[in-house]
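[Meeting: bench + compute handoff]

Bench side (C.D.) handed over the final construct sequence. Compute side (W.E.) agreed to return the predicted structure before the next meeting so the bench team could plan truncations. Sequence as handed over:
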Amino acid sequence: MSSDSVAISVKNVTKQFKVFFDKGSSLKEKVLFRKRNRYENRVVLDDISLEITKGEAVGLVGHNGCGKSTLLKLMTRILYPDKGTIEVNGRVSSLLELGAGFHPDMSGRENIYTNASIFGLTKKEIDERLDDIIAFSELEEFIDNPVRTYSSGMYMRLAFSVAINVDADVLLVDEILAVGDANFQAKCFAKMQEIKARGTTIVIVSHSLSQIEQICDRSIWIHDGKIQMDGIPRDVHPAYMDLMGKMRKAQLAKERGEELEEDDDSGKDEEAKTRWGNGDARITRVAVIDENGKENNVIRVGAACSVRLDYEVKNKVTDAVFGIGIFRADGLNVYGSNTRIDGCRVFDINESGSLSIEIPVTAMLAGRYTVDLAIESGHGLPVDYWKGACEIETYSNNGDVGACRIGHEWHFSDPALKDIR
């Protein structure tokens, strides 16, 4: 790969930390209780190498403590590797600890200048972006107040607005796409997609796999400090979730004092291998409805259609999110969205019901597509993710018509959820 096309290069990087068991905090304690100063060297990243090309959007996934956030901090040079090298080409903007450079007694406006200068902007550049930063944060009437008077949501919104308006070549994001209320979150997500469309290199750490699938072209799964798998998200994520399920099962068996039985994947049916989640709710039936209101998976390009799903609720799902992803035969994510991104109000599901996702303009290229459907709870916790829930085949009598953004609407049968916009 040409060095000119590489945005981030990680070569044979190792990072470890000293973890003290019971470290004394005062000189007296350190002298009297020397044995308390025992520690272990914990290897967080173990000789990993990867390259990310310019304009690529990459998601880092893995369980807590696997090393993904440490890798992101190494890319920002907040931390430095013990071994190996990391090269990042271009201006870097990081969304790691929002507002880390804010001073509580300074106004929001003053903190914009201070924080943006940390990202390398000159005063002239900040002047040019100031109105856009304030407008995006939606804090016009509070911008000259000290930030110590801000709520936590206002504080995060201002910090996010600064970080995404520095026109960075590389954007590093760590678990911060849940900024503010549902409407602002949708706005942030749309901004991330706009930044990606401009050709900015993006690296995201998130436990919300649906967010990564909708933004990223590639997922890197880090497990115990090493790269376990690297590929397109919908190939990497099922393997990752399968291992997480096995680890959870082992933990529960240990807590109950039971002996864990070895899993035999050969006995699983195909559906079990392509679904994961905690099971509080489950999609029970999926159908594609054509423009005549009939079940039909073969749709004419340009015609309206909808995907209908029935779901069963076993336990209440708080802050529920329904999502859809449409993929080409080669795994390319053609389209994806969910009720959170579309600005729907926060809602819970208590009872079984149905949902119809209307796609008024199926202006996709003629071909075969698979549809993933998902129910999530809270911050991206999978309740039921069904990979390849159904297929749609599109045909055209006019040849290649190109592709465009697919519109859609959400229609619930539950009267309590009729108006979620």
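W.E. noted at the follow-up: The chain is about 25% helix and 35% strand. C.D. will use this when planning the next construct.
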